[in-house]
Design a protein that fits this description.
By secondary structure, the protein is an alpha+beta fold. 50% of the residues lie in helices and 9% in strands. The longest helix has 21 residues. The structure holds protoporphyrin IX containing FE. Protoporphyrin IX containing FE (HEM) binds next to helix 13, helix 14 and helix 18.
Length: 378
């Protein structure tokens, strides 16, 4: 709120010394996300980060990080088209029975326990199992690729990013080679096959696309589930209403996305030329973070509240982004959260926070979510 007094487009300095522009107004964020002058390609982004960021805080290598999310049209358009052929609504809808089964198995494990950590026992394993299933990645590999992804995302300056990127790339290359030799009916096998018009992803593109899909699909869904359970347990009236009428769960999920979305400042761009947004001119070559959480809570467009609205016409939100980079996995993320909430409330509707005063610890400023969520089941 102190920031809001300064405006909707402001300049901030992070505790680690990084200075950048931050967009916190809803209309301004929406405009920035749809503006082609706001660029994302990895070469330009890394060049600016190396100039303005503290020593060593650039993450994965350019080859690995040069995926669809870090590219601009026309490259982005081509990559998105190629992956969308395989990442279809039909494929995602077909995953529902498996998501239900995985969730049921995870909840079965909780039976008989008085207390569980909903992050460790549900919110963390479910999305990673689902993404492994979707992509056709062996679930046994998860500890390894999760370790590398976390190191690359955290961009800790004391870690050798080039070495970790190399390990991750080699792992992905071996995985893809094995799939090419023995294709299955999973998404990666589909991506390896020839496209209708002969266009296909090259091996380096496949490696970075697989990296993106592995990373984008689990931490976000993890925090959506964790943040949602937390909000429900903090709002007894909403919890009772959801138990009485589970058809309201999708509306609750949208409200969690609006008020407590997993992506905070993680939407970074840079200005390819001078860009005026909300009456402020951001000069060319500046780093710009669009804060989706701040935009979603902009009092100018959305009521500021901590209650869960359980109505179908929820206030609008930008939790999945906007424009050409709008989240490819939004239907999948929503489905995972809806299944998790439905089964949890059905089986453990009487659950409550172990400590009602429990204040969650945000893992990072650019991802919003909890490291643990201790809950008493009965
Ligand atoms: C992009 C949020 C789940 C895959 C994005 C963006 C946001 C977002 C905000 C755009 C970032 C930007 O413009 O800079 C979320 C949230 C999720 C979620 C809140 C909660 C469940 C998933 C899942 C997948 C996924 C399950 C599946 C693999 C992607 C991909 C992109 C993306 C591939 C890049 C799209 C592009 O560049 O065209 N997501 N995501 N996401 N997300 Fe998600």
């Amino acid at each position: 709120n102190a920031w809001r007094e300064k405006g909707s487009v402001i300049r901030v300095r992070r505790p680690n010394g990084l200075t950048h522009w931050l967009i916190i107004g809803y209309d301004e964020a929406r405009a920035a996300l749809a503006d082609p002058r706001m660029r994302k390609n990895v070469t330009g982004l890394y060049e600016i980060l190396r100039r303005v960021a503290p020593e060593g805080s650039v993450g994965a290598s350019e080859a690995l990080a040069g995926h669809m999310l870090n590219s601009d049209p026309p490259e982005h358009t081509r990559l998105r088209k190629l992956v969308s052929r395989e990442f279809t609504g039909r494929r995602v809808a077909g995953l529902r029975p498996r998501i239900e089964e995985i969730t049921k198995n995870l909840l079965d494990e909780m039976e008989g326990k008085d207390e569980v950590d909903l992050i460790d026992d549900l919110a963390a394993p479910l999305p990673v199992m689902v993404i492994c299933e979707l992509l056709g990645v062996p679930f046994e590999d998860r500890a390894q690729f999760q370790k590398w992804s976390k190191l690359l995302l955290d961009a800790d300056p004391s870690v050798d990013m080039a070495a970790v990127s190399k390990q991750m790339s080699e792992y992905l290359a071996a995985l893809l080679a094995a799939k090419r030799a023995e294709p299955g009916d999973d998404l990666l096998s589909g991506l390896l096959a020839d496209g209708e018009d002969g266009d296909r992803l090259t091996m380096p593109e496949l490696i970075s696309m697989t990296f993106l899909l592995l990373v984008a699909g689990h931490e976000t869904a993890l925090h959506l589930i964790g943040n949602g359970v937390y909000m429900m347990l903090k709002d007894q009236e909403a919890l009772d209403a959801l138990r009485a009428d589970p058809d309201k769960i999708p509306a609750a999920t949208e409200e969690v996305l609006r008020q407590f979305g997993p992506v905070g400042w993680a939407t970074t761009r840079y200005t390819g030329e001078d860009v005026e947004i909300g009456g402020v001119t951001i000069p060319e070559g500046e780093l710009v973070c669009v804060s989706l959480d701040a935009a979603n809570l902009d009092p100018a467009v959305n009521p500021e509240t901590t209650r869960l609205h359980l109505v179908e016409d929820n206030p609008k939100h930008l939790a999945f982004g906007h424009g050409v980079h709008f989240c490819l996995g939004a239907p999948l993320g929503r489905m995972e959260a809806n299944v998790a909430f439905t089964q949890l409330l059905e089986r453990f509707g009487g659950m409550r926070l172990v400590d009602p005063e429990f204040v969650p610890v945000w893992r990072m400023s650019f991802m919003r979510g909890f490291t643990s969520l201790p809950v008493r089941l009965r």
